[in-house]
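Usage example:
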Amino acid sequence: MSDGPPILQLVSVSKRFGGVEALGETSLDVATARTTVLLGPSGCGKTTALRLMLGLVRPDAGQVLFRGAPLDQEALREVRPQMGYVVQDGGLFPHLTALDNVRLMARHLRWAEARMRARVVELAALVRLSEDALARSPSELSGGQRQRVALMRALMLDPELLFLDEPLGALDPLVRADLQDDLVGIFRRLGKSVVLVTHDLAEAALFGDVLVLMQDGHVVQRGALDDLVTRPASPFVTRFVRAQRRLDVDVKA
Amino acid sequence: MKGRRLRSMGVASAGFAAALALVAARGDARAAADEKLRVASKAFTESVILAEIVSQLERSAGVQVEQRTGLGGSRLVWDALVSGAVDVYPEYTGTLVDEILGGEPGASEPHDRAWLVRALAARGVGMTEPLGFNNTYALGVRAARARDLGLRRLSDLRAHAELRFGFSNEFMSRHDGWPGLRQRYGLPQTKIRGLDHELAYRALAGGDIDATDVYTTDPEIRRDALVPLQDDLEFFRRYDAVLLYRLDVEARVGPEALATLRRLQGRIDARTMMALNARAQLDHVPQADVAAGFLREAFGAVATRAASSAPRMILARVGEHLALVGVSLLVAILCGVPLGILAAKRRRVGQIVLAAVGVIQTLPTLALLVFMIPLFGIGAFPAVVALFLYSLLPIVRNTHAGLVGVSGALRESAEALGLPRGAVLRLIELPLASPLILAGIKSAAVINVGTATLGALIGAGGLGQPIFTGIRLDDVGLILQGAIPASLLALAVQGAFELVERFVVPRGLRARPTR
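Running the assembly step on the lines above writes:
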């Protein structure tokens, strides 16, 4: 799977919060038009890495590059519309309807009404959400519907990069499985560059072209699922894989 | 982005400044074209009746009069006179010497007229000859109690340390009141309470206190069968009633205004004054009618006064009240919301802002009103400024709390979408904070409706006018004419805001029945 140049790079970045190291010196490429999964237990630094890529926090050292150019405050303003972001509980604004959540940014950029409407219809079909649901407030939607709305909002401006932080983490198993299948299809159809954060190996294997396993603020191994299973870089990788496989076996039994 | 937010705050501040300028300009315009004689009084019946007498006599002489009666306290009315907010008010020589010109080198006895006239003239104030009665202080005790204890003179009080005194707040704090009296007579009593003067009579009649300060022309002395104890050490000063006026009255309003004031010199003796007080306070004759009756008898003058029916009076008071509350609240919103935003966005500035509005809130209302006099004179404007200051805390605090309470995840979602900071504030944070902000505005409004009644003490009118007049005259009907509309107004304001809530608070944030 050799690609063109990476769309986004972390170059020797590190980040501490109040003296605690959240991410040690780390370099990481996000491949263009592929799905990269940041994987690892809680507190391993995967979410911090994602927030650095989004420009929501500034690195203490090192650089974030978007298409090879440093992502400073100035550049962020221009790059933001090319990034979509979905968080665990959707992050929908409770005072706006689902539709207004989706259109918020387009409206701010003064899109024509017809263009907005066409885009919303297109996205609603993509994420399989009814018009009726779009008219409701977030509090009147189910958890799965909320994530679909959040995905529509993230995709509204047709970004090149899509970030998802544990997008399925808060859902019950049936809804989760349903949405997982839909997401895989959507990512394949859109062919966008995706960065997804999860602690679930099965989910990572389902989505990821590239898996990045992290531990204690550092990248432990980068590769396909196969590499992690057959050529683990450290005993931790084996333990992490086994822990999740055992669960798998138990469920089957 | 930062700039835009600051600019919008600037716009709000500019709006406030413009509002101030507008009101101030109106004040100036009025002062410049002034030909009216502004007659004031303190907040007790005798003072109000004297001011009525002056006003009606002036009107019958063709002078245009504006009345500002019932202002709260000697110092306040004096300051209003010196600062030019009013032209005339009745005063007592004893109060002048000991309280108002107190500490003045060469301060003398109240009957040293030459000294008084000089001291007043130095401040641009003139004084008529005495009106004819000496309304001095005395301590009043119920006649039966005085007989039982053998009390005749103030010196007799020394032997009865257990007696409970209830004094008006003014008497408690004046040099020529309780502190001086206690010292001169060496009085041992310790159970001293501060009470409203009129309420003290009720406490006395009810046996809750044994003695109170009375004025020698108070009608209650006769009604309640009180004995004023004899001032055997001659402590109390003479309190000859006089009229104080600004020396520029002659030039500004005309010589006939001054001549008319002088017609009252020596025309009201103590018996007459006590009778006038009794008609107003005991017989509940409106003060204007009491004054008219006196003028008819003494001068054969047919008094002219603006007659008005009770409903019309109430309506006018409600209008004044609403104006006080509405204007102060509007300006408080225009300033308070931006201040709350500033407090939420700049933590250090925020702490200062919140502390400052908190301190303002702790100032006693009357003290704040008195502060306003030298700055803004008397009337509606200083009252609006005071109400504005009191409204700030709930609005600023709730705006701050509402914004700080917006979850970090939502703020981050907005930022990740690419919304600039100003848009995040406008489209996300303020709408999310709107229920709290509105609640703050609502409590400010409801509190204001209550506090605005105190505006009557500095001549701002409003529903406090009938309430305070009613308390003074022991006229429950009059009290209710102010109190009932004030309560209804508070309820109406509350209801109105609940209605506004439906339109302003986004649907998704409103409490709804569980599904």
